[in-house]
Each structure stands twice: as structure tokens, then as C-alpha cells.
Amino acid sequence: MEVNLMSLNDWSEDLQVNGVPYINTYPPGPYSLDKIKEAKKYVTSYWTGKKKDSEDGWDLPLTVKKVANSLIEDVDGNVYIDLNAGISTANFGYNNPEIWIRAQEIMNEYGVLGIFPSNDYNLPLMIDASKKLLSTVPNGPEYRVHYACDGTEANEAAIKTAVSFTGRGCVVSFMGSFFGRTMGSLSCMAQKSRDADTFRSLRSSNVYFAEGANCPNCIFCDHPEDCNGYCIEKFLKDRVLTHQVSPEEVAAFIMEPYTTGGLMNPAPEEFLKSAREICDDYGIVLIFDEIQSGMGRSGKMWVHEHHGVQPDIFTSAKSLGGGVSPLSAAFIRDEIMEEVPAYHGSTYGGAPISLAGNMAALEYMDKHRLLDRVRDLGNVIGKRASEWEDYLNVWQTRGWGLLRAVDFRENKNNPMVEYKSQIQGELFKEGIVTMSAGQGRYLSMLRLIPSFTIPNEHLEIGLDIFEKVISK
Fold first, then answer.
1. Model confidence, pTM
2. Is residue 91 part of a domain?
3. Nearest Cα to 120, choosing from 278, 404, 345?
4. What is the per-residue pLDDT across 194-228, written as a single tens digit (0 to 9) for each?
5. Of 368, 405, 400, residue with least CA distance to 263
6. Rounded-to-10 torsion of CA 401, 407, 412, 415
7. Are 395 and 409 in contact (CB under 8 A)?
8. Quick check: is 7 in a domain?
9. To the nearest whole number, what is the mean pLDDT of the chain?
10. In what order do the strands lie in the sheet with 313-316?
């Protein structure tokens, strides 16, 4: 595998003493299992609803001791190659020393370290960070930035802003996307019924659902190339906006322009342009969720650049803080902010440590030409993965840049969920970390979303092992 780019320093040498991946104890090892049981006595998180003495509850039974770049060491001494990048929170690798050192320098330059209530006082650091961030956005001067800490917070801000700006009370959400777990975001989400079942009584009744750009799972066409546009022309226009709610009542459309965890599939250009046209015709605010897909992961800095469709608001998070501190943002059209009578806040949103992390990460991206690297590494994965479709039970491989997935099905209508889990487990035992994904009953995908800084040889090893496992 050759990627003709400026070489990157790899800071994970001390985890490579025995080669990578390195399996010291058949995973999950005894210390990992003990720590999982111990955690359940004290911590509530993903494993809520599990018995304290159970060993499940995670996507993988991994107890982490140390991380560096694209490697994870567990408490049993196993070293894994991570093809998940912390669900895209580690675009620049874990513990990137260049970004950490530069972030510290930036905070020292501005005289504000760590946490500061940026909501209540004006900070030159926030002004300069926003200028730099908006310089990466098409038509950046037309936007302002609202900062928060988590992706769902940014989406809450987007939804509230649209409702406040338009004076309307309804939202149309496009099924298949993941927006978050706070109540506004959760109300707009229709990806898996279990996400909503428990809190259904609390969800807003003013959210209406249209078919998203779920092309591989399309209910109207057998194949994406046969697209007849029914999802927009028939379902959205002739059903949702006539049978359920009038467009004059709709404050916002909210969608992922690149459906990530649910499908790992970019929306077609015609789909996004049609949504933009409807919004323009009826004064509806168009919101794009780029929480996982933005910040360079698709091969362009922002997904909406690919098709030139400009949203009124778009959101970002995950690696926005450079891996230094959590940071999310809602990018809001200036003309909207001029008229918003009510708004949204976040105590820790735009904290100096987060803004410094973002500035350091943007500098790092420019210095190391990471967008070029994403495209080239993405092409490597795409070429390798396309060959896997010849293997039994690999139905599709798809994606752009470093936003890719392998989908295991017998055919379009028969996802192989248990088989996918079996493959994921086998990869884990071989020292490869992946994460599952899917929507509805199609929970049959494994994501391939490595860090931008993964060494070429580690990616090649990871892909070799992936192919070995699925070819058995």
C-alpha cells in the first residue's frame, strides 16, 4: 500500500515492542473481565439494565489501559489496532502530542487556561477560534458559531433556533439518522425503535418523519441506480407535507447529509437539492447534522461541500476539540441570528481548553495536509473493501473518505445481524477493534472509520486481518 503524502510522526512506538496487534492473553482477559464487573458496581453508562455480575453491555468487552495514535492496550497486555477512532472522536489519533503541546501554547498566549464560563464573558480566544473555524466553511462569513460540549447539545441548539426564528412549532425529521439522546434530539430520531420506546411519552408530538436518504434500504427502489425520487416526490411532498403537516407550520428539516452510524451512506445530490428547494419555497430552516461526518472525515472538510448544498444551520462535534477536550458547534446563518428572540446556552461550551484544541487541530490538519491523506487512505480502503464483496455474506461495502462500512446480508432484505457480531468478535480476538452499526432491523454493519493519522502499515495490517476473518 502506498500513500504518497508527507510522513507523519507516530507516537505509539512504546506499544509496538512486540509488534501489532499483539495478543498476550486471549481476549477478553481475566483483568478486563474483573474490571468490567467492578465498573458495574459504581458506574452507570452503556450497561444500564445489565446485572452487576454480567460480562456484557459494551460493543466490545475492552478495558483500556493505554492509548496512543491508532493503538489501544488493554489491562491484560493486549495491543489492538483501532479501526473505530473512538467513534470518530480521535480523528487525529489518541493523545496526539503535537496537538496537546500546541493547545497548551495557545491557552498560554491568551492567558486563559482550562475552563472559563465563555457563555457569560467575551473572550478574544473565542473570537479568533471562530474566525479560524469559519474559514474552513463554504461562505463562512455568512455564519456565526454557537459552542457546546456534545453533539446532541449542538442539535438542540439548532432545533431551538429554528423554532424561535420561524415562530413555527413543527419539525420534519428524516428517518435513519442519529441526532442524540437529549429530548429534542431524541424526539427527532427514527433510527431504531429502542432509542425511543422508553421515553415515548416525553417525546415531542410535533415532529413528523419523512424517508431519509437510506438508499441501500430504500423502500421504493431495489437498487440506488434505479432511483425514481419517490422518497421526496411521493413520500415527503405528497404524504408528509400534505397528509400530516402543512409546510407553513414546519420550522425545520433536520437530516444527516451523510447517514453515519445508521447506514454509512451519503445522500444523493438530488435528494439534498430537493430538500433545499422545498425549504426555500416555504421558509423552512434546513439543518444538517455533520456530527460524525464533518471535520474532514468524508474527504472534504464538510459533507455539504461535496454537492454544494448550503444548509441554514449545520452541527459538528466528535473531533472538533482536537481530542483535547469535548467541543461541539452549531453553525448558524447570520440572518437567522439577527432575528432570534430566544436562544440556547451551554455553561462549558467554548471552554478555552476546547477552543485551543480546535485551533491546534486545524493547524495540524493544514500542516500535514490531512484532507489529502483522508482521501488517499479512503481510496485504499475502498479498493480493498470492494474486493471483499466476492466473499460469502458480504453484501455491500460503501462510503467516502474514512467513513466506510461493510454490510453483511444474504441479500437486501435479509440482514445477518448475528453473523456481523460473530465477525466483530473474531476480529477482536485477532486484535482489531471495530464498531457495529445499522438502522431498524438492518443492524448488520461494521464501520471502518480509522484515525486520519493511522500509520500506513497499521491500516494495511488491519485490512489484512479483516479480510482473513471474513474469508474463512
1. 0.95
2. no
3. 345
4. 766 767 777 788 999 999 998 898 888 877 777 77
5. 405
6. -150
7. yes
8. no
9. 92
10. 143-148, 328-333, 313-316, 285-289, 250-255, 170-174, 207-210
